[in-house]
Amino acid sequence: MKTVLVLHPGQMGAAIGAQARRGGVRVLWCPGDRGRATARRAAEAGFEPAPDLGQAVAAADVVMSIVPPAAAEETAERVAAAGVPRIYLEANAISPRRAERIAALFPRQGFVDGCVIGPPPGDRVSVRLYLSGPQATVEAIGGLFHQSAVETVALGETVGGASALKMAYGSYQKTSRALAAVSHALAAHHGVERELLAEAERMAPSALAEPGHLPGVASRAWRWAPEMAEVAHALRAANLPADLALAAEEILHRWDPDKDATDLTLDEVLSHLRDPSGED
């Protein structure tokens, strides 16, 4: 039986680990200083708590890092200090250069750069896990998710490939939703919400035509804002303008108080974009 260590069981990590368990994989997690919500998700997914990080790394065939982007490097450093994992899957929304720095902490044949695109997988929802790294190592990770809701896609052996895809995809996906929120807030300020929505619905499918999704965007913005900072790093490294990504990061940070909220209304979400100083 293969063993996977999930760092850490957030919504996505818990869901992906649960898919591995369906295929007969043993899944560990490290309680450490994690909160009650994390412990609940781990228990519901059937993960086994490990005594400490060192023992968990030693027991795992694969260490899977799925954490907020700002914590990716620190998480990798803690793992490297605790032991040498057989395989380390860096599956966070980070820039290619950050992925390369993290890769330097581990043996080359045991490191895979990954990215997750799609919602947390479940019975009726699938997700793509893109992987770039040594072929045999990538295939070993793919074997964990045979006939599951996680579709693994190999991107070649160059570290940074999967991270680059996530940055390219995220730069559009997150920025378009931030722009849509600002557009609806402006329309609401001037009392032309219905007219804006009518025009948006005449367009091809877009975030602007679906304002009902914005409360969900606000509740996840605490994770998306750091991703936009990573996108800005990636754009600068490619000599491309980072202004839109940085602006989206600033917009998303205005929803920091709405972290993981489940009862937000659209009016509340739009009002939270306004600068309380009134200086915008």
UniProtKB/TrEMBL annotation:
GO molecular-function term, one example from the UniProt record: NADP binding
InterPro entries to which the protein is assigned, alphabetical: 6-PGluconate_DH-like_C_sf, 6PGD_dom2, 6PGDH_NADP-bd, HIBADH-related_NP60_sf, NAD(P)-bd_dom_sf, Pgluconate_DH_NAD-bd_C
* Alphabetized Pfam families for the sequence: DUF1932, NAD_binding_2
Q: Which residues form the Phosphogluconate dehydrogenase NAD-binding putative C-terminal domain?
A: 187-255
6-phosphogluconate dehydrogenase NADP-binding domain location is 10-151
Question: What's this protein's name?
Answer: NAD(P)-dependent oxidoreductase
